[in-house]
Write a structure and sequence with these properties.
Helix content is about 35%, strand content about 25%. By secondary structure, the protein is α+β, with helices and mostly antiparallel strands. The protein has a 5-stranded mixed β-sheet, sandwiched between helices.
Length: about 210
């Protein structure tokens, strides 16, 4: 079962109104009960966008949802990967911060190498350059945002790609939620339901798109 997640933010001179973002596919194996993830960079050239954007807009993935909503996003994902897009959801990048703040708490992450980062923007606030040390560590919310949103000052290799780092964090968040459900099922599920309901109400989550029965 494939869940298509598009997170949008305030990068490359865009505002939240532009809804520019990258796409992550969470693929759930019902036999092993495990998730695999695939991230598609927001800068991948996207031929399906030709003729659908105003002058000056690039034909890249970050413009897909704004140009054609869930229908176009499904087409692009299925064309690019060959996977069915069973469920789709669009969220603001700040929602991951809120999820950690209100539901999961700090998350343990094994960072492969040190990252000296550039500044980044989140929720209308600019954050200065920072440092993410290498090694296993329990990340606070802000540390996690640096890890997935801040570009490296001198990127070299896949470990420096934000899409690669985002995969790592999402897997750890998913593992933390599954563990919390096992140990405290009622409070965890209640907290998740409250969180999603609030984000739907305030626009942090676009109502999900169910594209086919599974």
């Amino acid at each position: 079962i494939n869940f298509i997640l598009m997170g949008y933010g305030e990068e490359h001179g865009q505002s939240y109104d532009d809804m520019g973002g990258s796409i992550t596919i969470l693929s759930y194996d019902t036999l092993t009960r495990r998730f695999a993830t695939i991230s598609l960079s927001r800068d991948i050239r996207t031929p399906e966008l030709r003729g659908k954007l105003p002058p000056g807009k690039e034909n890249v993935i970050r413009n897909v949802y704004k140009a054609g909503g869930y229908d176009l996003m499904r087409t692009v994902v299925e064309d690019a990967t060959g996977l069915s897009a069973d469920f789709q959801i669009v969220i603001k990048d700040v929602m991951i911060k809120k999820l950690m703040d209100t539901v999961t708490g700090p998350v343990e992450v094994d960072v492969e190498k040190e990252h000296k980062t550039q500044s980044f923007r989140l929720g209308g606030k600019d954050y200065p350059p920072g440092l993410i040390p290498a090694g296993k560590q329990t990340m606070s919310t802000i540390q996690a945002m640096y890890f997935i949103l801040a570009e490296d000052q001198t990127p070299d290799g896949k470990q420096d790609e934000r899409s690669y780092r985002k995969d790592i964090l999402l897997k750890e968040i998913q593992k933390k939620i599954m563990l919390d459900i096992k140990t405290s099922p009622v409070s965890t599920i209640t907290g998740l339901a409250r969180f999603v309901t609030e984000e739907l109400a305030n626009g942090g989550v676009v109502p999900p798109g169910v594209t086919r029965s599974v």
